[in-house]
Amino acid sequence: MTVLRRKRKVKKIALIEDDEALSGELVNLLENNGFLVSRILDYAHAAEKVAEISPDLLLLDIMLPKGNGQSVLRELRKRTDLPVIMLTGKNTDTDEIMGMANGADDYITKPYHPALLLLRIEALLRRAAGEKKQEIFLYRGAELNLLRSSLLRDGKEILLSKNEMMIFYCLLQNQGKIVSRDQLMDFLWDCNEFVDDNTLTVNINRLRKRLSELGLCECIQTHRKQGYLLL
Predict the structure, then answer these.
(1) What's the Cα-to-Cα distance from 112 to each of 61, 91, 188, 206, rounded to whole Å?
(2) Does residue 6 sit within a domain?
(3) What is the pLDDT of residue 186?
(4) Which of 17, 51, 123, 133 is least surrounded by Cβ atoms within 10 Å, i.e. has the fewest?
C-alpha cells in the first residue's frame, strides 16, 4: 500500500463513489495515509450530506445511481468552495471541461494511480489552507508540474503519462542516488510481485524519449542489477 507520511492535523475526506470495490480501496488508501474518511451513500441528497459532514475535501464520482456528480457539484458550489476532485471511468475531454466549468478543482481518471491521487489531494489541501509549498520541481532548466503531469523547458511543454511522471518524480526526489527497480515498482504499483519486470523497462525507455524531446538526453543511467540514476 502506498503511504505518503505527513506531520499535520488530521484531515477529513468525504467520498461519493457507488462502486463498492473501488470505495473499499479508496477508504483503505486514505485511512492508511492518516485521513478520516466519510462515505456518503445517499446520492439523492449528496450535497446536503456533504454540508452536514463538513469535510476538508470531497472525492466525487461523476456517474451515480440517482443523478450524477456534475449536478452534485453544481449544488455544492452554491454554498461552499470545498476542494473537489472528480473521479471518472471516462477518459474524455468533455467530462473534464464540464467538471472544471462546474467548479471542480481537479479531475482524475480511473483506474487512478494511488500515489498520484495522494499527491493531488495533498496539493489541494495545501492550497485550501493557503500554504505555500512546492508543487513544481526544477531539473536542468525544466519544470516538472505534478498537477499538470507535464514538463516545461524553454517554452516547450510535454505531457507525461502517469507512470512516466511518477518514475521521473521518484528519480528526481533521489537525484544522484541509485533507485532500485524494486523501489520504483513499489512506488508505481505498490507491490512489485504483480508486475512484469519488462513493463518498468518500457516505461523508463518512454520517459527517456520524452526527456530527449526537451533536449534532456542521457539523463537517466542504468546500473545493471542495481537500478537507475538520475544525473
Answers:
(1) 12, 12, 11, 20
(2) no
(3) 77
(4) 133
Query: Quick one: 170 and 225 in the same domain?
Result: yes
* Residue-range definition of the domain harbouring residue 147: 136-230
Contact at 8 Å (CB) between 137 and 149? Answer: no
**End position of a domain, from candidates 81, 106, 128:** 128
Residue in the structure block whose three cell numbers are 485511512:
31
Same domain, 116 and 141: no
Going from the first residue of the chain to its last (231 residues), give the mean pLDDT of each consecutive group of 10, the final group possibly shorter.
Answer: 50 92 92 92 88 92 81 85 83 52 76 82 80 73 84 89 85 92 77 59 90 93 88 92
Cα–Cα distance, 108 to 160 (Å, whole number): 14
Q: What is the pTM of this model?
A: 0.58
Q: To which residue does cell 527517456 refer?
A: 208
CA–CA gap between residue 153 and residue 225 (Å, rounded): 32
Structure confidence at residue 31 (pLDDT): 92
Let me know whether 95 and 79 are in one domain.
yes
